[in-house]
Amino acid sequence: MRRLIGGLVLAGLAAAGAGWLLTAPDRLPEGSFAGVEGDAERGARVFTAAGCASCHHAPEAEGEARLVLAGGQRFASDFGTFLAPNISPDPGQGIGGWSQEEFANAVMRGVAPGGAHLYPAFPYTAYARMDDRDLVDLWAYMQTLPASDTPSQPHELGFPFNIRRGLGLWKLLYFDDGWVMDDAEGQELVRGRYLVEALAHCAECHTPRDALGGLDTGRWLTGAPNPNGRGTIPGLTPDHLSWEASDIAYYLETGFTPEFDSVGGHMVEVVENFASLAPEDRAAVAAYLKALPDGGAME
User: Fold this and answer.
1) So which residues are the signal peptide here (predicted)?
2) Tens of pLDDT along 145-186?
3) Secondary structure of residue 197 in the 3-state scheme
4) Cα–Cα separations (whole angstroms), residue 197 to 54, 144, 190, 221, 289
5) Domains within the chain, CATH numbers bracketed
6) C-alpha distance across the termini of the chain, in Å
């Protein structure tokens, strides 16, 4: 009996050790951005395309106050409610004490400076495709923003979703920094893919998810239930969105649809972001959406 119990204990310890290794954070190689100087002016455009302020400004902030990334907005989901953290340059409550490398690991790998996994409510699975130069420029720009000493609020999650280490298994299942549209040809389509799949992270809202919250890439951008439980988010594939490319580009600039309706909800801020980008960027997004297959299956 003692041998049996001893064997079970050893097997349990071995399983726990294997699980601990499997769920360990995966960081970028050390020195990935060494010697690269960021350009804050270029970083401002990356910041806008990535929609950083849209999620991280304080609730109800307007105008220039939206550049104070104090956090606090609430995002409901099937797993609980996530609260956007303070990512202003404040060294105590924000990310002002982080290094560029720590920032890169958070944005592109979902790993906090202390090694904890970040929840994928933060779209690092999309930002993982970000160009290294854009990452460095974004970091440079964020250092120029106003600081806020507003403390970040904890997420409101129940068991087992409040166990961050389990996100290591989630990443093994769903973290993939490859392109969904892997055969993009031509400069415009490549740029559109970069904006849609990486910076603007459109799939985070417009692609359905499975029971564990992973994106169903076989139904890429075909629409999804609204995480807050109210209504649905429309599909963007040609079988769901019949607009001409010029209509899509115009909508991203003005918020007006071909049916003379206007943008609403969270898309208001998305359109405001895209309206600040170059016309070529809006045209590239439109080209990408028109190139999608019906049903969203890329293979």
Assistant:
1) none
2) 999 999 999 999 999 899 999 999 999 999 999 999 998 899
3) helix
4) 17, 27, 10, 10, 11
5) 36-174 (no CATH), 187-296 (1.10.760)
6) 55
